[in-house]
């Protein structure tokens, strides 16, 4: 099957990014791109024209990401020198404490390039304890927070510094900070004499910060050649600023936002791309940028065996992340004057035989920049401002209230086989077993627009991933609807915005665990067990207040979680 639309950007020898679209996605590109060209959207975006989007936020202060491949260059020499300095002192184990946009890109970069990096983005006590019990003598902690007040990251810093002091170490020599200029964290770092402070570009929001200090500093300290990453982005940046039908960012943005009927769900499928957990990074970019004002796209991270992919449901747009290879399609490409080749190839756009899908491949640096441009374009087409997140503060405020003594939402309704069940009485509808309670929740799914979000406040580096393996696919097969999966509390800094501000069709299954470890947070009157419980309670409260169905299941043992896993995918009569 020949693609209906192909765009390819690179030099005469190598494609750096490639996007193809078939079926309804190709027709959407064909229909939407001429308007984008007429309005000079690509060149205006590259020129950081804030008038492309409506909204109260000063978008002009959020467009610095478009030239990070240039402005981040000054970081390379400094962070490389710091890495050598740390290595000379035996500090070769890098731990990154950061949430959402402050850690996801670094996780992708280091994982894709096979460089060890420990990411601490959880308040689950056992995960925190595991890092604190590591070899602190050779550990450097990168504390990354744009605001400088992120409760999870501040708590990690406090616990880590206390552990270093207890081990007789000079804690300040082990801490590196990445934050925006003038933040409370920057002020604290200078007062405490931390090893280094990197001021990130304040014109860049978290989910657009892959090529800023947030992505580059921890990656470089871990051993990545971040200069090459910037080179990869620089190779394709000129193409993304061109008002031409062959612009891959316009093609991807149009396919995401303009496919009709609107593909409400974007299925992010890694088809051997070689990019580690890139779907999780793209998930945040899509969810936080486009999920607001009751609109947006629901990103689902899945693999090639996803039931949603097999079903080819008309409201789901599969986006396949594939390896970048030279293929015969290059023979169809035309050389242009500047020595680069890129083209849009149109086939019979009325053909009904082509399945609807989008395929994306590219270098790591180029792919980061491609998706950022494409999502900004999609925001323009959907009529949403991609640079704010108006619905995330509610859970933060509710967390503070729970930590201040607010009682939980409701008492346990019942327990079944070691699983404690909590939900509003009206939702349970008389259910007295876990399978029945799950069935009543799933009955709330809108058969045309609904999606299920599984939210697990469990140790994602312990036994939970193995015990929950297959749950997402099993529930997708059982319901015939898209299913997302997120680890708490990190999803609060990713899909949390979409859950509250996006299409109001979500149904939520929250799984929490007991507290086998109580890890204190110096200077706070709560510990990590209390913090993670408050975060789960807070998000459930906010979702419930918005009319979203929420079922909460608490498991205190691996056996109970294993039993629950089987119950989730088993239909009841």
UniProtKB/TrEMBL annotation:
It catalyses: alpha-D-glucose 6-phosphate = beta-D-fructose 6-phosphate. InterPro entries: G6P_Isomerase (IPR001672), SIS_dom (IPR001347), SIS_dom_sf (IPR046348). Pathway: Carbohydrate degradation; glycolysis; D-glyceraldehyde 3-phosphate and glycerone phosphate from D-glucose: step 2/4. Its EC number is 5.3.1.9. GO terms for molecular function: isomerase activity. Residues 82-227 form the SIS domain. Keywords: Gluconeogenesis, Glycolysis, Isomerase. PANTHER family: GLUCOSE-6-PHOSPHATE ISOMERASE. Belongs to the GPI family. This is Glucose-6-phosphate isomerase.
């Amino acid at each position: 099957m020949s693609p209906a639309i192909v765009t390819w950007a690179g030099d005469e020898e190598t494609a750096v990014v490639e996007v193809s679209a078939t079926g309804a996605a190709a027709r959407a590109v064909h229909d939407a791109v001429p308007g984008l060209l007429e309005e000079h959207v690509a060149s205006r975006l590259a020129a950081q024209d804030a008038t492309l989007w409506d909204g109260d936020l000063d978008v002009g202060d959020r467009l610095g990401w478009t030239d990070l491949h240039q402005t981040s260059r000054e970081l390379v020499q400094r962070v490389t020198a710091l890495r050598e300095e740390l290595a000379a002192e035996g500090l070769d184990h890098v731990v990154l404490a950061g949430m959402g946009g402050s850690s996801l890109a670094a996780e992708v970069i280091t994982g894709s390039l096979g460089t060890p990096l420990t990411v601490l983005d959880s308040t689950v006590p056992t995960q925190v304890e595991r890092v604190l019990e590591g070899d602190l003598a050779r550990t450097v902690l990168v504390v990354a927070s744009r605001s400088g007040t992120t409760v999870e990251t501040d708590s990690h810093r406090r616990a880590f510094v206390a552990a270093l002091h207890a081990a007789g170490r000079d804690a300040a020599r082990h801490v590196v900070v990445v934050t925006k200029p003038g933040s409370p964290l920057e002020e604290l770092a200078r007062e405490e004499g931390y090893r280094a402070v990197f001021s990130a570009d304040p014109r860049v929001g978290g989910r657009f910060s892959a090529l800023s200090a947030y992505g580059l500093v921890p990656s470089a300290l871990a051993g990545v050649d971040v200069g090459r990453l910037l080179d990869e982005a620089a190779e394709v940046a000129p193409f993304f600023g061109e008002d031409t039908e062959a612009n891959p960012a316009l093609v991807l943005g149009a396919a995401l936002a303009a496919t009709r009927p609107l593909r409400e769900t974007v299925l992010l499928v890694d088809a051997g791309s070689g990019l580690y957990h890139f779907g999780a990074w793209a998930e945040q970019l899509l969810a936080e940028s486009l999920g607001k004002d009751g609109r947006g796209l629901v990103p689902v991270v899945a693999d090639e065996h996803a039931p949603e992919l097999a079903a080819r449901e008309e409201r789901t747009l599969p986006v396949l992340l594939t390896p970048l290879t030279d293929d015969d399609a290059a023979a169809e490409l035309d050389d242009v004057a500047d020595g680069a080749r890129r083209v849009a190839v149109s086939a019979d756009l009325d053909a009904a035989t082509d399945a609807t899908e989008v395929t994306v491949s590219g270098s790591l640096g180029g792919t980061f920049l491609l998706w950022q441009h494409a999502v900004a374009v999609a925001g323009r087409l959907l009529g949403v401002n991609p640079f704010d997140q108006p619905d995330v503060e509610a859970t933060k405020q509710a967390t503070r209230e729970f930590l201040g003594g607010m009682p939980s939402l409701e008492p346990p309704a019942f327990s079944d086989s070691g699983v404690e069940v909590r939900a509003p009485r009206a939702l349970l509808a008389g259910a007295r077993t876990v399978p029945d309670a799950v069935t009543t929740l799933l009955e709330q799914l809108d058969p045309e627009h609904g999606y299920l979000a599984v939210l697990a406040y469990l140790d994602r580096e312990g036994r939970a991933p193995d015990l929950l393996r297959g749950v997402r696919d099993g529930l997708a097969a059982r319901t015939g609807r898209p299913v997302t999966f997120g680890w708490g509390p990190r999803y609060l800094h990713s899909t949390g915005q979409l859950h509250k501000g996006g299409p109001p069709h979500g149904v939520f299954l929250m799984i929490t665990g007991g507290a086998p470890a109580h890890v204190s947070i110096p200077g706070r009157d709560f510990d990590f067990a209390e913090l993670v419980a408050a975060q789960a309670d807070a998000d459930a409260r906010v979702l419930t207040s918005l009319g979203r169905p929420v079922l909460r299941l608490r498991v205190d043992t691996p056996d109970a979680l294993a039993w629950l896993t089987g119950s989730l995918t088993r239909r009841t009569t």
